[in-house]
Structure formats: structure tokens, C-alpha cells
Amino acid sequence: MTNKPSAIIRPKTRDKLRSIIKKELKKNGHECDLNHIDVSLVTDISYLFHNSPFDGDISKWDVSRAETMDYMFFSSSFKKDVSGWSRSSVKTDEGMFLDSAIAKKLELKNPSFDQVKSYFLRLKLEDVFPKSLGEESQVSKARL
């Protein structure tokens, strides 16, 4: 039996989005793909995964209209790559990764989005050019 991709869901508010995510995680587990959720209309995604065990894929989310990302992954298990996100409308992202699994991997209590993005971009470069970046860089040692 194959899993059919879920239909596109388009919440307009953070509360509706949180409700959808909760149902998806209950149905599909904490490492599920949530890219079928169109978040492009949601402007506040603060605390979205606060204290969450979620560690699935949201790399294709269109967060370009999001203005508030405060504490989005605070104390969460999330450690996936979101370096491709366009954050052109973000006004505040205080504590976005505070005490998260990514923060622990980077050995930083409260890394900025740019630090996390840099980490994932270096990982991608090491995958493409492993020898030119040295045999065992700091990024390789901290690999997720």
C-alpha cells in the first residue's frame, strides 16, 4: 500500500496552522513531510513548534509573508534544513532557535537564522566538495 500525498491545505492564521500541524503529526508521526501545507498566507508563525518533537520536512514552505517568527523552534527537536526560506517580510525572529536541537548541534544557546543557514550551506558544500574543504571540518563533526 502506497501513501498518497495529502491535499494542499491553506490556513490563514497561526492558530489554524497549529491545529493542522497537530493533526498531521498525530496521523503521520513526528518526522512527516508537511510541505503540503501552504503557509503563504500566515504572517505570524511564532511559537509554532515550541516544545515540539517535530523533526520532519518543511523546507518548501513559502514563509515570504511571515512577519513574526519569534521562538518558532524554541525547545523543539527540529533540526532540518530551512536555509532556502525567503524571509523577506520578517520583522522579528527573537529566539527562533533558542534551546532547539539545531542550537545544541551548533553548540549555541540561541543561534540566529543566518548562523543556522550558514551551517546547512556548509554541509551542502561539503557534500559537493568534500576534499577541498578538508578531511574533517568542524561542520563534519557537528553533522546532524
Give a short summary of the structure.
The protein is mostly helical and 144 residues long. The chain has helices at 14-28, 101-105, 113-128, 138-141.
Description:
With 144 residues, the chain is mainly alpha-helical. The chain has one domain. It is built from 4 helices and no strands. The protein has helices spanning 14-28, 101-105, 113-128, 138-141. It is globular.
Are there runs of 5+ residues with pLDDT below 50, and where? none
Counting DSSP E segments of at least 2 residues, the number of strands comes to 0
Q: Helix count, per DSSP?
A: 4
Spatial shape: globular
The average pLDDT value, as a whole number, equals 89
What would you call the structural class?
A: mainly alpha
Radius of gyration: 16 Å
Query: How helix-rich are the residues, as a percent range?
Result: 25-40%
Strand content: under 5%
What features would you highlight for this structure?
4 helices; 144 residues
Write the topology of this structure.
Elements: H1 14-28, H2 101-105, H3 113-128, H4 138-141
